Every structure is written in structure tokens, then in C-alpha cells.
């Protein structure tokens, strides 16, 4: 398992932050083992990550190291409050909604991740096949969307975002901006 993680991390030059997103469960499992020769519990999350890397190995070998930037890009600003979320696509569309009662008691990082997730879904038709640059005022959401999280519920949202982007051919980048901007 350590070897798989090592190979995955070595592909960051080609794949960006993707290896960080898809090695979280394996890394957690390795940290919990007693020693290098100790056994590890292969959870469903670990199996999913190993299966992902089994399929991605061939894909990564044929990817260019320098990616050509798409000329068609769009900017989306997302935000969340204690009870609502919004996403604004630069001068074109606004998506907004209320958080469910259970979501309102979540951490601010989770609410900001949900704002990102719900905004992408709501703007799907306008974003499909494009480069999407999301701006958020949450440094945690930027990090989680890019690299994943050690917390399972946040990691689950990050993976939903990844798979949505893959299905909709969206090249996503997420950046932090100060609240005042």
C-alpha cells in the first residue's frame, strides 16, 4: 500500500493535486498500523482508492506533463452563511438556496464545501466542458476541494465534486479570496 501511495504522489506533476485527494484513506490506514510489517484493515474507502489507482495508472502514463490551458474559462464565486449558499457565475447566472437543517449545524468548512458543490450542480449546463475557476472566501474549502480532507464527511463532498467534474468534463481550479473582495 505504501508503494501505491508513493507512485501516486510521484504523479503530482502530471495530475496536480489529484493524488492527494485519492490517497487519504490509504494514508490514514498506514498511519494506524503498528509497524511496517503490521497488518492493515482494508476498508471500503481503501479499496475504492486502490481500484481508482489501478485504472488511473494507464491514463496517467499517456498524459502530458505540461497541460495546455483551455481558452474557454469561467469564474464562479461561492459563499455560504449559517443557513444559505450561493454561487455567482461572472455576469451570467446566480445559483442560491437554503441549507437543510442538518447542514446548518455543520462546520463552516462543510457549509462552504456544500456551497461549492451545490453551485456546480445548479450551474451544470453552463459549466459543462469548460475550465471553471471557483473563488471562495474559505481557505479550508479551497484546500479540501483541491486535496481532500482527513474528515470522512468533508472527503465525501470533495470526491463528489471530483466525480461531477469528471462526468461533466470540467477542469476545476479553486482559489481563496479575502472576504472583502
TrEMBL record:
InterPro entries the UniProt entry points to: DNA/RNA_pol_sf (IPR043502), Hepadnavirus_pol/RT (IPR052055), RT_RNaseH (IPR041373)
Residue ranges constituting the Reverse transcriptase RNase H-like domain according to the UniProt record: 75-159
Protein name (Swiss-Prot/TrEMBL): Reverse transcriptase RNase H-like domain-containing protein
Keyword annotations: Endonuclease, Hydrolase, Nuclease, Nucleotidyltransferase, RNA-directed DNA polymerase, Transferase
Organism: Volvox africanus
Pfam families: RT_RNaseH
Entry's Gene Ontology molecular function annotations: endonuclease activity; hydrolase activity; RNA-directed DNA polymerase activity
Amino acid at each position: 500500500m505504501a508503494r501505491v501511495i508513493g507512485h501516486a504522489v510521484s504523479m503530482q506533476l502530471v495530475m496536480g493535486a489529484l493524488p492527494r485527494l485519492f490517497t487519504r484513506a490509504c494514508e490514514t490506514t498506514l498511519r494506524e498500523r503498528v509497524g511496517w510489517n503490521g497488518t492493515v484493515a482494508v476498508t471500503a474507502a481503501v479499496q475504492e482508492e486502490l481500484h481508482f489507482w489501478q485504472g488511473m495508472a494507464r491514463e496517467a502514463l499517456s498524459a502530458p506533463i505540461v497541460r495546455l490551458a483551455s481558452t474557454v474559462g469561467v469564474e464562479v464565486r461561492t459563499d455560504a452563511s449559517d443557513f444559505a449558499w450561493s454561487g455567482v457565475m461572472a455576469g451570467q447566472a446566480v445559483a442560491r438556496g437554503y441549507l437543510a437543517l442538518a447542514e446548518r449545524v455543520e462546520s463552516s468548512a462543510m457549509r462552504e464545501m456544500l456551497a461549492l458543490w451545490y453551485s456546480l450542480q445548479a450551474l451544470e449546463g453552463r459549466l459543462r466542458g469548460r475550465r471553471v475557476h471557483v473563488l471562495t472566501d474559505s481557505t479550508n474549502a479551497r484546500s479540501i476541494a483541491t486535496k481532500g480532507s482527513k474528515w470522512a464527511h468533508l472527503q465525501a463532498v470533495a470526491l463528489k465534486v471530483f466525480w461531477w467534474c469528471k462526468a461533466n468534463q470540467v477542469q476545476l481550479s479553486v482559489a481563496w479570496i479575502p472576504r472583502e473582495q
